[in-house]
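Q: For a teaching session next week I want to show students how multiple molecules come together into a single three-dimensional assembly. I've collected the sequence lines for a complex. Could you give me the predicted structure tokens for the whole thing so I can convert them for display?
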Amino acid sequence: MTIDAVTKVTERIIERSLESRAAYLEKCERMRSKGPQRGQLSCSNLAHGYAACQTDDKQTLRLTESANIAIVSAYNDMLSAHQPLETYPNLIKDAVRKMGSTAQFAGGVPAMCDGVTQGDTGMELSLFSRDIIAAATAIALSHNMFDGAICLGVCDKIVPGMLIGALSFGHLPFLFVPAGPMPTGLSNADKAAVRQRYAKGEVSSETLLDAESAAYHSPGTCTFFGTANSNQMLMEAMGLHIPGAAFEPPAGDLRPALTVAAAEQITKITALGNDYRPLSQVVDERCIVNALVTLLATGGSTNHAIHWVAIAAAAGIQIDWQDYADLSDATPLLTRIYPNGTADVNHFHAAGGSAWVIRELLDGGFMHADVLTSAGDGPRSYTQKPVMKDDKLIWQAPDPALADSTIVRSAKDPFQTHGGMQLLKGNIGRSVIKVSAVAEAHRKITAPAIIFHEQPDLYRAFEAGELDRDFVAVVRYQGPNANGMPELHKLTPYLAVLQDKGFKVALVTDGRMSGASGKVPAAIHMSPEAAAGGAIAAIEQGDMIELDADAGILRVLVDDATLAARKVTMPDLTHNQTGWGRELFQVMRDHSSVAEQGASALVR
Ligand SMILES: O=C(O)[C@H](O)[C@@H](O)[C@H](O)[C@H](O)COP(=O)(O)O
Ligand code: SF4
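A: Of course. Below is the structure for the complete assembly, covering every listed component.
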């Protein structure tokens, strides 16, 4: 039985989405009704489609009795989280062939590492790379040779982009296959401490590099609960993984067994069999609410206040930040994983992991239990953890003896009675803040504004000693129309040093923060953005800004008439519109929707 607030928000979303959802489902039915995809192709199309296949595969593909599975992969050597994916396609092909079906590597999608681009120009392409990934996924699937698909991807914009692209083929079933976290190295807290010491000039860049290299040291996803690991948690909650695939490490025999299990499962759930599970039926309004509740219960990435709006829209479902806020008010915080605590995702997994969270949310009535999933039998199957027993993959409940109460809590005794995210309203616009990572003492601040138009301006002011005081950093012209809405996570060590010195500091921006950003209160995704004439552009040096995260208030203490009468001079933004590929993204900056609608140039 779902609790009232979850039911209320779900019904509100269904109501709001009636028309768009019906149109989406009609489109998917139109694609399905044409029958097995390759059966619609001409002889020439089909021959081209299997020209490079092995002879026995060609014979199988000439017929339409067995499934042909698309593999779409975000493999590259740049993302530690994606490097292990290199070997997965052949594992999948062999497993599918053993099922009497075929699999083809349908296409690759690009994947950017936000850790490599953080604070650098490349970060200005990051958000829009999600839409490029969505389009690349559609290009891979456009060959219409397929009855189902497996998507290999993990990181920030990649899973959202692949899911948006997959939803354009909602008549097909999909499974998402990750590679798992890297082993724990230098703890996230120790890494952050070295960064702060570097910001204060106390250690050399050599020492900093040693610390960063000890934190990020091998294949696998980085171990903070940022956007990538939030993706994995939400894929479990939406039933788009093989249960428990999220946080098993890349090494060892479980990971390949889970990948083979995904290959076997996808061949069973196509329209050619009798257990058809199209993506359009899995991703419905209740599934989206299950994802939001799980995000809020785990203090997941604020980027999902943008990505899941775009994903929902791709399924004809309309959600907004009030939905997040109302669900957050009703959802208990069940985990403390860095930046919301000191444990990392490996510790979380050992303490019970995704299975624990989903069990607590289902038992507490916070998640819809009666929904279709791509594997198992509804979300309840995702309350089990995979183990190898006598070389066989089986699932069992997490061991209660391992449930470390500093990392995971029951819904009856949570860390907080409300979730990790808050909607902020006021005379500057609408923004969001992740409260799960901000200490109570720092959630309320009234202080003068200091205006910045570029991240380095803040570093320079810090180094010049100009910031040793209470202030609210207003970092603007960082929205999608301005420069592609980069994450401003490089500001964290500087602001954290000032907070540790005892100053009351906060950040207000129309840009983003990383899912790994934490202890400094940051009102982000300000809509409308400065470059679109938002009120954030009219804030002047010294204006008093009031932020009350718990009350959901953010305002500049200037009367409306004065604020409206202010003349705003738009800074010259042309310098960040060319170089390092940015000229290729102008059309996306020009046509992006606002953050609260998913900040997309493709999905509406
Ligand atoms: O949203 C996220 O989770 C971040 O974009 C993350 O993917 C990025 O890599 C951070 O920069 C990591 O944190 P550090 O920069 O602190 O290593
Ligand atoms: S989690 Fe972030 S930093 Fe780590 S590989 Fe993925 S994108 Fe890069």
